[in-house]
């Protein structure tokens, strides 16, 4: 007898998300990803001045607004025929990199760590490190002062939870440092962005802001602090967990997913918008075959809507022709997310996809050493590794800025044209597609990372990547479905930009508390 | 880094304890309601923290991210020292059914005492089905939570006035909180709201036990009382009729005004030029971008990169006085109200400058 588990809302992610799974014999048999918000930003863009698109669409998400603005100005560059000067390209890379660093640190420490630590182990710490003793004493005081009530709601630690007192206490200590570090990364972004969230310096043809020596120095100084933290704290923590206590979870391939990976590439090294010349590479991998990275072909992107609340007539379209026609009463639909497909297949996007496509040597050595890819644990490893690669590259890029040289090549709004901005957000492949007619936006479509990952089934009934990752997951105790949140959070969902809505579920069998 | 404010405090140990407790509370999955109790038990202090219920609707979480960027006080310190966050989807430990239960309990337990913070607009089309949390519409959740709130605070322009999701054609009929529930709502707009505005407003409520003086749009005067344009570091450029005409260009001997690129400074009221953003790092106009007027009910006033009527008129006048003819790039209508006095003064000043230049007067 299958048991239904519904978690709504899932917290400690960005945005409004719910999942519904069926568990039979301790294993997930079926899964549905749902979201709960529809704002219609694409509809708002229609008929507006094309230059306004970047401002409007950056509001898709307050966690990755810089990436939305990036995709938006790249589609404008293309539609306007504006060549971005080197300074403009580099400043955009630095802003994007800052957003990645802030997002990755936040994700590991503040959104994820709880899924893997047995916090109560802190009380057993008996080392001599003063910083760790301080952490221990606080926790002990908390326990003594209250009772066990404050520790609920919370799942029970399972066989994969890390329970070594020194390790757990150290992780909590790092969590506290990480709060300050993510804030510093946001400040770093604001140096070339004006403010954050929703920075203001991106325009078609480049950026508005000059790379003055004082700004370069202020940026570099924060970057060095962050590199130190990433290399000596964040990456070490992730590798320690991944190759040590969480290795069994990785070896079981918990949260493997669909095995298809898509990356648009990010951080332009040559001509702005040329996805074939990027620091992180563009390409597609099918069926887990890492020996064959297929070149990216944007014509292979389309979206299907059989299980989404949109009119069926809008299915199977490339985003240039895409339409957003809500049909909230549609029979059989269960999500506001469309189902994006590449060459007809569901694709996982995000740090793991980017790293497997880029195949940087250090990372591939890790893949070969650990085997068992992909998994939920592997996603965290890829995220941390990427963070190190990007931060170190940024140090080189900031040195390539040339004060006094042009930052922007402004062009007038064309009477007609179209553009496509394919970039990567921290969470994965992000595409903005705009069509201009009579100096105004005729059509605007966004295909966002969480839509790829959390997509519903497509017209053929093939499930999306997160749904596939959930199916087969071990849930030995349905009262304690900890693996479900581990898997969902490993994708770093960011649902504000993945528009969809949940229908009231009247036939729920069971509701769960998941922390 | 030396933190003077911290160094001067007498109660460092307690504060650092609380900072740790806050962080640990978040991490341990402690219900926030319980943390003040624990702190009180451990330290023998009275539990005087302000309960807060924070709801998310049609939003992007940008205001929460901005709140987490609070510099002094830092977010952990803030949450424990001053506030007791009863419900906050991004920060709280609980999920699903239990999270919803926590919300109900908080509304009962702190009836008439809690501050309700709303982030995001309220979609009202089709009975509000476009935003649901735990199966309920966001509209109904806000209405219910506002009933017994001591104060209702709308954080961000979406919650204050509808903001970007309410931009034409407003597909889900998004509205600001005050438009939906009526009564007194403290609006802290901004896209996002500045962390100091959020923190400062809440602290002000706690200090004086009443809402601060509000302007006609429900915004606290201390933060939203002064016009951006009057306090702008590029004001000199405006007065002398020196405008940035192309993005990315700077003028050699003056900070050129961003008015020709659509700056909303003359119709926007906020303290950004002095307060700056992200721990004093920068702000929009300093980054050579126009002010988008993100704290105003009219935001987003489109098209954003075309000069507003008053400025277009002034540019025309000042350029005419520079014998450069009219500007062909601006299609803005020149009718309607004009900031005549200011424009006139600026043009006169500029003409005077021109005359002095011609006469070789130093």
What features would you highlight for this structure?
heterodimer, A: 515 residues, alpha+beta, three-stranded antiparallel beta sheet, 38% helix, B: 362 residues, alpha/beta, Rossmann fold, two-stranded antiparallel ribbon, 39% helix, elongated, disordered N terminus, disordered C terminus, metal-binding (chain A), oxidoreductase (chain A)
Distance between the termini of chain B: 46 Å
| Strand order, largest beta sheet of chain A | 1-2-3
The DSSP helix count of chain B reads: 15
Instruction: Report the strand count of chain A.
Output: 12
Main location (chain B): other
Keywords (chain B): 3Fe-4S, 4Fe-4S, Iron, Iron-sulfur, Metal-binding, Oxidoreductase, Signal
Family (chain B): Belongs to the [NiFe]/[NiFeSe] hydrogenase small subunit family.
Binding site for [4Fe-4S] cluster 2 (chain B): 229, 232, 257, 263
Q: Any chance you could write out the topology, listing elements then pairs?
A:
The complex is a heterodimer of chains A (515) and B (362).
Chain A: E1 3-7, E2 17-24, E3 27-35, H1 41-45, H2 53-58, H3 65-80, H4 86-112, H5 130-145, H6 165-193, E4 202-203, E5 206-207, H7 213-243, H8 247-251, E6 261-268, E7 278-285, E8 301-304, E9 339-342, H9 351-358, H10 361-370, H11 376-398, E10 417-425, E11 428-437, E12 440-447, H12 449-453, H13 465-470, H14 482-490
Antiparallel strand pairs in A: 1-2, 2-3, 4-5, 6-7, 8-9, 10-11, 11-12
Helix pairs in contact in A: 3-4, 4-6, 4-11, 5-6, 6-7, 7-11, 9-11
Chain B: H1 4-8, H2 12-28, H3 34-43, E1 50-56, H4 62-68, H5 75-81, E2 83-88, H6 96-109, E3 115-119, E4 122-123, E5 132-133, E6 136-137, H7 138-147, E7 151-155, H8 157-161, E8 174-175, H9 177-181, E9 186-188, H10 195-208, H11 221-224, H12 235-239, H13 272-275, H14 309-321, H15 340-359
Helix pairs in contact in B: 2-5, 4-10, 14-15
């Amino acid at each position: 007898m299958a048991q239904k588990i519904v978690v709504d809302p899932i917290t400690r992610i960005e945005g409004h998300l719910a999942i519904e799974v069926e568990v039979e014999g301790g294993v997930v048999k079926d899964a549905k990803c749902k979201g709960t918000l529809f704002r219609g930003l694409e509809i708002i863009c229609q008929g507006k001045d094309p230059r306004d698109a970047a401002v409007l669409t950056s509001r898709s998400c307050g966690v990755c607004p810089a990436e939305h603005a990036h995709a938006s100005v790249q589609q404008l560059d293309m539609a306007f025929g504006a060549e971005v000067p080197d300074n403009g390209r580099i400043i955009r890379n630095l802003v994007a990199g800052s957003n990645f660093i802030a997002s990755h640190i936040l994700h590991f420490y503040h959104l994820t760590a709880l899924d893997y630590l047995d916090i109560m182990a802190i009380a057993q710490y008996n080392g001599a490190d003063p910083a760790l003793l301080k952490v221990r004493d606080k926790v002990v005081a908390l326990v003594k002062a209250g009772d066990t009530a404050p520790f609920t709601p919370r799942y029970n630690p399972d066989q994969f939870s890390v329970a070594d007192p020194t390790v757990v206490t150290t992780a909590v200590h790092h969590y506290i440092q990480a709060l300050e570090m993510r804030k510093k990364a946001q400040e770093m972004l604001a140096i070339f962005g004006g403010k954050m969230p929703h920075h203001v310096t991106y325009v078609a043809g480049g950026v508005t802001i000059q790379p003055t020596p004082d700004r370069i120095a202020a940026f570099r100084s924060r970057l060095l602090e962050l590199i130190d933290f990433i290399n000596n704290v964040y990456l070490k923590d992730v590798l320690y967990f991944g190759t040590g206590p969480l290795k069994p979870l990785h070896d079981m391939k918990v949260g493997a997913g669909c095995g298809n990976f898509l990356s648009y590439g990010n951080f332009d090294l040559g001509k702005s918008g040329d996805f074939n010349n990027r620091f992180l590479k563009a390409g597609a991998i099918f069926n887990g075959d890492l020996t064959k990275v297929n070149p990216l072909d944007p014509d292979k992107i389309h979206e299907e809507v059989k299980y989404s609340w949109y009119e069926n007539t809008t299915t199977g379209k490339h985003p240039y022709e895409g339409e957003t026609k809500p049909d909230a009463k549609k029979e059989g639909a269960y999500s506001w997310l469309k189902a994006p497909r590449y060459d007809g297949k569901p694709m996982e996007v995000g740090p793991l996809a980017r790293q497997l496509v880029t195949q940087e040597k250090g990372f591939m050595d890790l893949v070969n050493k650990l085997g068992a890819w992909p998994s939920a644990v592997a996603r965290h490893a890829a995220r941390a590794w990427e963070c190190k690669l990007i931060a170190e590259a940024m140090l080189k890029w900031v040195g390539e800025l040339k004060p006094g040289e042009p930052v922007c090549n402004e062009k007038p709004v064309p009477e007609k044209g179209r553009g496509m901005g394919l970039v990567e957000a921290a969470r994965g492949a992000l595409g903005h597609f705009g069509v201009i007619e009579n100096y105004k936006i005729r059509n605007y479509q966004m295909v966002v990372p969480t839509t790829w990952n959390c997509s519903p089934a497509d017209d053929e009934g093939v499930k999306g990547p997160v749904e596939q990752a959930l199916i087969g997951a071990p849930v030995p105790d349905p009262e304690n479905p900890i693996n479900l949140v581990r898997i969902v959070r490993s994708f770093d969902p960011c649902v504000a930009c993945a528009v969809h809505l949940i229908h009231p579920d009247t036939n729920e069998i069971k509701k769960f508390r998941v922390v | 880094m030396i933190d003077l404010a911290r160094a001067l405090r007498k109660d460092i140990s307690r504060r650092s304890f609380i900072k740790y407790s806050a962080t640990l509370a978040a991490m341990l999955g402690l219900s926030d309601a319980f943390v003040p109790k624990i702190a009180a038990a451990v330290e023998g202090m009275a539990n005087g923290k302000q309960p807060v219920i924070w709801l998310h609707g049609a939003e992007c979480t940008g205001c929460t991210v901005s709140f987490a960027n609070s510099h002094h006080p830092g977010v952990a310190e803030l949450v424990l020292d001053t506030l007791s966050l009863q419900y906050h989807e991004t920060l709280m430990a609980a999920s699903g059914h239990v999270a919803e239960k926590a919300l109900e309990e908080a509304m009962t337990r702190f009836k008439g005492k809690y501050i309700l913070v709303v982030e995001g607009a309220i979609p009202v089309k089709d009975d509000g089905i476009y935003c649901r949390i735990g199966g309920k519409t966001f509209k109904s959740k806000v209405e219910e939570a506002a009933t017994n709130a001591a104060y209702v605070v709308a954080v961000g322009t979406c919650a204050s006035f509808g903001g970007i999701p309410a931009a034409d054609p407003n597909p889900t009929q998004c509205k600001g909180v005050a438009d939906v529930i009526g009564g007194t709502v403290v609006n802290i707009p901004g896209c996002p709201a500045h962390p100091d505005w959020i923190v400062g407003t809440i602290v002000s409520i706690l200090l004086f036990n009443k809402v601060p003086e509000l302007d006609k749009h429900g915004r606290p005067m201390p933060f939203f009382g002064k016009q951006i344009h009057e306090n702008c570091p590029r004001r000199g450029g405006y007065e002398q009729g020196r405008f940035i005409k192309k993005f990315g260009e700077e003028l050699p001997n003056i900070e050129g005004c961003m008015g020709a690129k659509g700056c909303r400074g003359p119709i926007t009221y906020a303290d950004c030029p002095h307060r700056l953003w992200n721990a004093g790092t920068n702000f929009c106009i300093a980054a050579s971008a126009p002010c988008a007027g993100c704290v105003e009910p009219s935001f987003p006033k489109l098209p954003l990169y075309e000069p507003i009527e008053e400025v277009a008129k002034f540019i025309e006048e000042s350029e005419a006085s520079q014998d450069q003819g009219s500007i062909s790039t601006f299609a803005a209508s020149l009718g309607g109200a004009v900031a005549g006095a200011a424009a006139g003064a600026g043009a006169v000043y500029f003409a005077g400058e021109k005359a002095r230049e011609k006469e070789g007067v130093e």
